[in-house]
């Protein structure tokens, strides 16, 4: 399979036509080999236009949804970023090309090792992984300009929000009543307002961010 051609087609057909105009994001997605972040038996699906589940609570968003979430996050060159739910490291690999430093969280030690190996192979020295519970965050590494939760959540990530700097952003996809919408929490003092930016296709809720029984967002 010609992965390089598949990456170009992914950007041309799934990213650019969906109002992702930031050339930095387009370039990062066009040059980063998405396939290496998947198990060998799933690599031929790396550029199909759908979400790919590769482990319990671990998945790659559709390129369109991922790109729009990164764009909504507004990554800046001097940002310190917490990439919660690291998985095999794709989201951090993209963010590492857009910001100063990416600290990632992954509860699965094997996936954490895979992620670090992937970043090393690609030459990203500004991405590091910590083994821990994503919903607890990494307060000792923060506060953060941006927290990236690359998937759907059904409850507000309280501990993560408290690790944002003033005017810091948390990008994620909120899922409520069967509908998923990507957007951004922004901190103002002790208040956190969520702004919706786009409808997302994902239905897979990130492990640890499921709604408890009887919960209402």
Task: Write a brief caption for the model.
Helix content is 27%, strand content 30%.
Protein model, in words:
With 217 residues, this protein is of the alpha/beta class. It has a single domain, classed as 3-Layer(aba) Sandwich (Rossmann fold). The protein is 27% helix and 30% strand. The protein is built from six helices and nine strands, in the order ααββαβαβαββαβββ. The strands form two sheets. It has a seven-stranded mixed β-sheet, with helices on one face. Helix 1 runs antiparallel to helix 2. It is globular, with a radius of gyration of 16 Å. The model has no long low-confidence stretch (mean pLDDT 93).
CATH architecture identity: 3-Layer(aba) Sandwich
Number of separate domains: 1
Distance between the termini: 43 Å
The number of helices is 6
Strand content: 25-35%
List the helices and strands and how they pair.
Layout: H1 3-15, H2 23-31, E1 52-55, E2 58-60, H3 63-73, E3 80-84, H4 90-96, E4 101-106, H5 109-122, E5 127-131, E6 144-153, H6 158-161, E7 164-176, E8 179-188, E9 191-200
Parallel strand pairs: 3-4, 3-6, 4-5, 6-7
Antiparallel strand pairs: 1-2, 7-8, 8-9
Helix pairs in contact: 1-2, 1-3
